[in-house]
Specification:
Oligomer: single chain
CATH class of the largest domain: Alpha Beta
Structural class: alpha/beta
Number of domains: 3
Order of helices and strands: HHHHEEHEHEHEEEEHEHEHEEH
Radius of gyration: 24 Å
Length: 305
């Protein structure tokens, strides 16, 4: 064995698996406190493990800011390697434990809360008709899903609204479907011209649906009372049905109630909201692309009805 090879092996042996795992989780979570919660340890333990790894590698992996942890260039390079490493470890456990059918690779899909609770569920049904894979769906916030997508923990993410350019760097993005929105109410609800005599229920302020609703109300100088907010658009529809409230929701979620005449459309709302599919551009996945194609076809079929 030559000296260089021997030296490399000795250096690698200094790496600690725990250090690498703590680093990976910290990079995924974005803060020491969040990583500590996920790992079930104290924040001090996480910080100590990160500092130990940085000493071994001789580089700084994070910039510590008030907002949390920001990967340095060395950190990003390290994260690319740990993402591959821990994904392979996860795959090994699946194979040895017979957790999945080896003839069907897993397609891990993240679905944002906005899509899961505010868009017709039929949009994801094509995934369960793909005989070449085993789809596994998980619902979470878009920020968390995109972080896991970049980490290799997901193959595909479906989210409402176009993510900021900074958060989709290194990812491919395709428009799946637009999300027309409507203001709805029970037939007996007849608002005044300025809507001051009615109360409205809206999506939470952090969603793209809420931004569209607020823009609509402002553009038309409408001033209803705010009765409440909810992540789940079905809750908003129920509030319109049973509480005499006005709701502003994606039209697909209210289709059945509108077609049956239990609710009526007060106004069509200009919407910038849409469903997007994102997947990594560094490791093109035929399964992910096929899944996106199937989802787009289903969305177009739904829109045509």
């Amino acid at each position: 064995m030559n000296v260089n090879a021997s030296g490399s092996i000795a250096w690698v042996m200094q790496l600690n698996y725990n250090h690498l795992y703590y680093f990976h989780i910290a990079a995924v979570e974005g803060t020491v406190s969040a990583a500590a919660i996920r790992l079930g340890v104290t924040a001090a333990t996480v910080s100590e493990q990160l500092r130990s790894l940085e000493r071994v590698l001789g580089v700084e992996l994070f910039e510590r800011t008030q907002a949390g942890l920001k990967l340095t260039d060395s950190g990003r390079l390290s994260f690319e390697h740990t993402a591959t490493m821990f994904r392979l470890g996860e795959r090994l456990i699946e194979v040895l434990g017979h957790a999945i059918d080896e003839s069907k690779p897993t397609l891990r899909v993240g679905v944002s809360i906005g899509v899961a609770r505010s868009i017709s569920a039929t949009i994801v049904l094509p995934l369960f008709g793909m005989p070449e894979c085993l789809p596994v769906l998980r619902t979470s916030d878009t920020v968390d899903l995109l972080r896991d997508l970049r980490a290799g923990l997901l193959e595909l993410v479906l989210c409402e609204g176009e993510p900021p350019e900074s958060s989709r760097r290194g990812l491919e993005m395709e428009l799946v479907s637009t999300s027309p929105m409507v203001a709805i109410a029970a037939p007996q609800v007849k608002p005044a011209a300025d809507w001051q005599d009615v109360s409205v229920v809206l999506s939470r302020a952090t969603t793209s649906f809420r931004k569209d609703a607020d823009a609509f109300l402002e553009a038309h100088n409408l001033k209803p009372q705010l009765a409440g907010e909810a992540d789940d658009s079905l809750v908003l529809v129920e509030a319109a049905l049973h509480k005499g409230l006005v709701a502003i929701v994606p039209s697909s979620i209210a289709r059945e109630a509108l077609e049956s005449g239990r609710l009526r459309v007060l106004a069509h709302v200009d919407s910038t909201s849409a469903i997007y599919a994102l997947y990594r551009d560094t490791t093109p996945s035929a399964l992910a692309r096929q899944a996106v194609k199937s989802i787009v076809e289903q969305a177009r079929a739904d829109d045509s009805h």
